[in-house]
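Progress against Task 2.4 (sequence-to-structure conversion) is shown through the following example record, which the project officer requested during the mid-term review.
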Amino acid sequence: METQAIAQAMQRAVTLLERRPALGMHDDPPATARWESGTRVHTSHADGTVIATDMSTEVGGTGDRVSPGWLFRAGVAACAATAIAMVAAERGIELSTLEIHVASRTDARGILGMRDADDRCINAGPQVLNLTVTIAAPGVDPAQVRALAEDGCRRSPISSAVQNATPMTTRIDVITA
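Structure tokens generated for the chain above:
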């Protein structure tokens, strides 16, 4: 029944947005990060949820909390899983397994502000991001299951933001004490 409820909710949203497409564009809830000390940060949501991060000991953190980079990979994985589950529900397909594994490879010299042999800044972000989907839907043609996973990955907002390099503006407000 859960699959059917998701499909019905999605259909209601589609019907509404077909009638009033402007409602589709909305501001997402912001994340606010506040420095605690060292490399420890608390990031909060307007609903009161707080996520604490820190860096590894190799770069001055305590290593006792997840890093912001891990949180990024977790967001990619969770968003892709959610989007795939929504596509499955939309198509009336019951999943028995859905697992997303997101791995990346990063050059630590980037976050340290180091430069390469040609004196270029080293990218602080991941050099490569790999998303692996493990999925099963008993009794459904594997080609259909693969197609729904591909469609879900395409419809995942965070994956789309990464793949399409969403522009980001930066504003810096300096306060004086």
